Amino acid sequence: MSTGTTKLDVVVSDVVPVNELVTRFHFRRRDGELLPTFSGGAHVVVEMRDGDRTRLNPYSLMGSPLDTREYTISIRRDDVGRGGSLFMHRSVRPGLEMVISYPVNLFSLDLRAKKHLMLAGGIGITPFMAQTAQLAGEGGNFELHYTCRTASLGTYADVLQQRYGRRVRLYHDDRGERIDLDRLLSSQPLGTHLYVCGPAGMIGWVRERAAALGWPPETVHFEHFAAPQPGLPFDVTLAISGKTIRVGEQQSLLEAIEAAGVDPPYLCRGGVCGQCETNVIASDGKFIHNDHWLSEEDHRSGCKIMPCVSRFEGKSLVLER
Amino acid sequence: MAAKSIISRPVYGTLSPQPGKHHLFIADAEGALAIADMAKTAPDRFFDGAEIVFIPGPDDKHVAALEALKPARFHQAPSFASLLPRLKQTLDNAHMGLRLYLAGTEGLIGQAMQVALDAGIDHTAIQTEHRGSLARRVQCVHCKGITENVTTQPATCSHCGLLLLVRDHYSRRLAAFQGVCINAEDRSEIPPIEEVFR
Fold first, then answer.
1. Which residues of chain A does B21 touch, with a Cβ-Cβ cutoff of 8 Å?
2. Alpha-carbon distance B114 to B100, whole Å?
3. Taking the model in full, what pTM does it have?
4. pLDDT at A82 over 90
5. Which CA distances in Å does A20 have to A17, A23, A76?
6. Can you tell me the ipTM of this complex?
7. Which residues pair with A99 in a beta bridge?
8. What is the secondary structure of B27-74 as a DSSP string?
9. Which of A185, A191, A212 is closest, CB to CB, to B120?
10. CA atoms B78, B84, B90, B94: torsion sign
């Protein structure tokens, strides 16, 4: 069985609107057993059967890892996205039977850290819900800084402040509040690890400042759920399986490969984990590499591609799979 | 530089200036020359935010070379043991942005790294450069005693007197190589003793 394909049969046990953009979904196992254990920062890939289309989107588990009777995820509605979040918001109701992957953690806490400094932007708060619950249970030393557009879009800000008081600090864009990042980073005790989850711009800014201020790369952890970018349709030949397929405008290469009945490995579906890395046998055209996994050299070589987020423009493309 | 043989055997690099707000150098003997060499490629005013802690050894060599770099602070110590409380205090009060550079003998690098690991610095984030003696700090796996400055193979445990094969098997936690009795079957068997870690 390939990585990422271990599945759980679940039923939606509750759907709770959180604010104007965010809805929370609860899942329990159909057989009534406990769900697999997970650690703070883990995500599951949710399979969405939307007519004849199957979407697979990753979402962070936000419940306490100490309670595996149910899994909870929170999804921000994206009206101009590829439709996964809209499907969840519009079509998923309590009682619906769904399939999700086993949890995978690509954003785990480094428990050797003396202190955990967490920076969240918007819906990037979800992995920290689980991480703070995990650390609070272990008496861990953490501090959470959370930026949101407005107080009403500060998803779970009230819950977090109630749970953790002064360990949570909020910043509202509409009030012009901004993290004094250099000061925050420079005042952390030795042995602190930094975790950031939010929009790509925020992650880039935090990583750049941390590196400039002398934080070793091993102490800076980040997670960004990049949706595959749409683009021009293109044709691909899969050498091993002998199939020729078309990748649609709104479809990722990985999704097209899956739709053709090939079962490639995957974990993050966001271009960071490396599981779906595929060899290019031949190509005549231009790669649009959107991943953070391959090196620049790999990108230039034209010999490898991450089909979860990357695309191709040109005459022909032959992949190994 | 020491050759890599088994996976736990430390491998050292060449000091290079890192981005950071404070730079703490700990060196002994010839390690001073590694710092002086690095200074040639360091940005202007790099040593304005640097502290150098130095154990010169018996003849006080290389002190002038380090003072010439004009670090913000310069501290000299007669032995690693004597600078330990100061080092612990510095790291306890330090913030992220402090970068650590260790240069000199393996014993110095290993022991300073041991303190840094306790303070929460990952070993991969520490700059190291080996200079000078190859003498090893060895733990006898039988009595757990540590013998400093071992240069021979085999070596006699300074605690229990067993004749030890000094292995490349290294403990980062103890900052010591492991020494295992070489003639456990027949203690009258004494293999030739050679000086190999000069």
1. 186, 213-214
2. 12
3. 0.89
4. no
5. 8, 8, 9
6. 0.86
7. A9, A47
8. EETTHHHHHHHHHTTSPTTGGGGEEEEEE--TT-TTHHHHHTT--SEE
9. A191
10. positive
